[in-house]
Amino acid sequence: MTLSLFPSAQIPRHKYITRMHVMDAGSGLIEFECGKCAYNTGMIKDIHTVTENKRGLPCPICNGKGD
Ligand SMILES: [Zn+2]
Fold first, then answer.
1. CA proximity to 21, closest of 49, 47, 67, 53
2. pLDDT digits (tens, 9 = 90+) for 5-52
3. In angstroms, what is the span from residue 17 Cα to ligand 1's centroid?
4. Separation of CA 40 and ligand 1 centre (Å)
5. What is the pLDDT of residue 36?
6. d(CA 61, CA 34)
7. pTM for this structure?
8. For residue 31, how far is its CA from the centre of ligand 1 (angstroms)?
9. d(Cα 17, Cα 2) in Å, to the nearest integer?
10. How far is the CA of 7 from the centre of ligand 1 (A)?
11. Residue 49's domain spans which residues?
12. Number of structural domains in the chain
């Protein structure tokens, strides 16, 4: 008998990732907001590169959390 340990691996990935865009930034803090669901991160620690910030962070709401 074979059990699948990772059934979630069979779920197709989202074709597009909804990304949040920078609303404000400064002093090592940055704020992102999703243009789709309006989720706002508030001022969070800016731990990403400028390039990553410009591209935007994946929205946890629109992209789901895997459960
Ligand atoms: Zn969103």
1. 53
2. 665 556 566 577 899 999 999 999 999 999 999 999 999 999 999 999
3. 10
4. 9
5. 95
6. 9
7. 0.72
8. 14
9. 33
10. 26
11. 17-67
12. 1
